[in-house]
Amino acid sequence: MILFQNCSMKHLIIFYGLLMLLGPVNVYSQNLEKMVLIPAGEFQMGHLSQSAAPTKEKSPYFLKQFKSIPESPVHSVFLDAYYLDIHEVSNADFQKFIQAYPEWNIANARGKSGKADQNYLRHWDQEKQKQFTEDPFPVIYVSWFAAHAYCKALDKRLPTEAEWERTARANRPSSHFDESVKSLQRSAWFYFNSMQSPQPVKSKSPNIWGIYHLQGNVWEWVHDWYSANYYQISPHKNPSGPASGIGKVIRGGGWNDGPMRLRVTSRDYVNPQYSINDVGFRCALSYHKKERKK
Fold it and tell me: Could you give the residue ranges of the DSSP H alpha helices within the chain?
């Protein structure tokens, strides 16, 4: 190779030794900068009660209002190791995505079948998109399809519902959670402290994994389709939801929810094409993908 024509054998040995030690430099390694590795492990998923508190009417886009979403039965789940973003995807992050993938800008995605409804990025407009370049607030009014495309563009994916819950539990059983207003003030933005709008990412205390706002601020899209009886038939290892369903699951509660909706077992679901003012997302990455890239 011309690059190494003036290098001694000693220098070449040192160079290739460093390559073997450090591994390849690629987009994957850059993507890990704002992610946390969650080790493989087992946990108890779900809640003993048959269902959650009734869903309040938040928006005409929710498919299920004033009805209960099952959180039972409690079932044992084993997950392989995975990475998860330390915070929700911000407006600034999403702005970079649509600059690289213009098919997801407002003009090309809003109201288009299989992409997003008419509310897509409603808090933006074409003249003011530049203001979001450094915006630290979580992106909202973003459909499941757009969230999926964003993660895929970074060689990531949306987390499964099981991955989301295990990370939010932070190795604690359900019985150890105190979802009082006082306890949530330290780590979550919700109805009693949000000033009725989303707040900047990383603006409250993280959990023991070092991850921010899994509870509150915005609901988060996950990979899974919703099915009322899935917990009854869920596989023990790496469940990823049913093959189809009546909506995509969202988790975590948002800035306009009370403590009951911020419980780590609380669930809801939404049409994947809908874009809503309190639903955002974060990305995950399977740990074994790193091994395949070496």
Answer: 9-22, 27-31, 91-100, 106-109, 144-153, 161-169, 181-184, 230-233, 288-293
Q: Which CATH number do you get for residue 141?
A: 3.90.1580.10
216: alpha, beta or left, given left = phi > 0 and alpha = psi -120 to 50? left
Ramachandran region of residue 213, left (φ > 0), alpha (ψ -120 to 50) or beta? left
Q: Quote the number of domains for the chain.
A: 1
DSSP 36: E
Range of the domain at 129: 2-293
Angle (nearest 5°) at CA 137 between 131 and 138: 115
CA-CA-CA-CA torsion sign (40, 220, 91, 198): negative
Interval 81-95: pLDDT, tens: 999 999 999 999 999
> pLDDT for 234-254, tens place per residue?
999 999 999 999 999 999 999
Instruction: Give the contacts of 239 (CB within 8 A, at least 6 positions apart).
Output: 77, 160, 161, 162, 230
CA distance 189 to 140: 15
Q: What is the pLDDT of residues 159-206, one digit of tens each?
A: 999 999 999 998 766 544 556 677 788 899 999 999 999 999 999 999
Instruction: Supply the pTM of this predicted model.
Output: 0.82
